């Protein structure tokens, strides 16, 4: 065919050069018999070959008028129908989709994120790169990780969603952080308070506090702990600093034993009377790492915060009596 030229290989078995006159081929197609909808009457006779995969992207380029767009292409010579079907199945049945981590980063680079999503991504990047308690603790990319880096607590796609929810939560409870640094400081202070209250559980794989489920739960507790602090613990205008969060966490989730604090017990199943210490140990909480278990723990811990309202005033009244 004058539309296709194949340069013979220099040595038998070497690669050959295939050249197709695409503009001439388009003219050739326009001259062929077609039905009322524009489909060729004898496509198998008139076309150069079969397209096994890539129909949508080539159709998109055609509809966009990008006829010179270059696609990486693999061409098979003399492939029978069975092998063509096998090639299609191999491409579409077994290929791996890009990970949520990779997709999240690409969405940010592409400019497709909303303002809230962009703010969450910037906050997450700054938490991971800056001088914070989560420095290098967020899995921001796929692939091998430098062994000199510390263990990651959570991946970026999950934290992205948690930060988006957090930004909405603080807005709903009336917090107006002026810039990224104030938001960063607020989160850093919050997590440092948890580390101070649970030093044995922080960055310890025998505990769930700094695994995905723990981080998920801590974010869910933030707005209600802040509300408790502002309405029941702190004086008007007093900042939500490290000591304030430590006070709130101790009040809600610990009991006093002399001069020390010990984790409370929480009831997982009142019917079976299943109780566990709120120490975040994998032995107690590992079986609750699915969605249902995490939601159950959130409800229990939020209820503990609610039960803590007015305790200081009540204790003072009983002492005076």
Write up what this structure looks like:
With 321 residues, the chain is mainly α. The protein is built from 13 helices and 8 strands. A hairpin with a 2-residue loop joins strand 5 and strand 6 (260-263). The longest helix has 22 residues, at 212-233. The chain is elongated and about 95 Å long. The termini are far apart.
Features of the shown structure:
single chain; 321 residues; 13 helices; elongated
List the helices and strands and how they pair.
Elements: E1 4-7, E2 17-20, H1 22-30, H2 43-46, H3 55-63, H4 81-94, H5 100-110, H6 115-129, E3 138-139, E4 154-155, H7 156-172, H8 180-197, H9 212-233, H10 242-253, E5 254-257, E6 260-263, E7 265-269, E8 274-277, H11 282-285, H12 291-307, H13 311-320
Parallel strand pairs: 3-4
Antiparallel strand pairs: 1-2, 5-6, 7-8
């Amino acid at each position: 065919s004058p539309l296709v030229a194949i340069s013979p290989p220099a040595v038998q078995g070497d690669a050959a050069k295939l050249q197709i006159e695409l503009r001439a081929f388009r003219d050739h197609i326009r001259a062929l018999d077609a039905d009322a909808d524009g489909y060729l009457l004898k496509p198998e006779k008139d076309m150069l070959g079969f397209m096994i995969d890539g129909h949508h992207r080539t159709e998109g380029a055609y509809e966009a008028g990008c006829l010179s767009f270059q696609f990486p292409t693999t061409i098979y010579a003399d492939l029978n129908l069975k092998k063509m079907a096998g090639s299609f199945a191999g491409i579409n049945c077994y290929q791996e989709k890009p990970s949520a981590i990779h997709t999240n980063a690409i969405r940010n680079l592409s400019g497709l994120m909303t303002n809230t999503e962009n703010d969450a991504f910037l906050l997450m990047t700054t938490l991971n790169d800056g001088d914070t308690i989560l420095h290098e603790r967020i899995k921001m990319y796929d692939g091998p990780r430098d062994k000199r880096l510390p263990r990651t607590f959570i991946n970026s796609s999950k934290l992205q969603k948690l930060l988006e929810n957090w930004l909405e939560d603080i807005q709903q409870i009336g917090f107006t952080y002026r810039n990224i640094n104030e938001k960063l400081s607020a989160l850093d202070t919050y997590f440092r308070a948890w580390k101070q209250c649970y030093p044995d559980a922080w960055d310890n794989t025998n505990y769930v506090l700094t695994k995905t489920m723990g981080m998920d739960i801590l974010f869910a507790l933030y707005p209600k702990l802040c509300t408790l602090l502002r309405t029941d613990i702190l004086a008007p205008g007093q900042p939500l600093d490290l000591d304030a969060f430590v006070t709130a966490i101790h009040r809600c989730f610990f009991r006093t034993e002399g001069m020390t604090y010990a984790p409370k017990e929480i009831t997982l199943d009142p019917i079976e009377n299943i109780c566990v210490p709120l120490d975040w140990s994998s032995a107690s909480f590992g079986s609750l790492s699915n969605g249902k278990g995490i939601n159950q723990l959130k409800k229990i811990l939020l209820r503990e915060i609610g039960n803590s309202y007015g305790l200081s005033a009540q204790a003072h009244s009983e002492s005076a009596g």
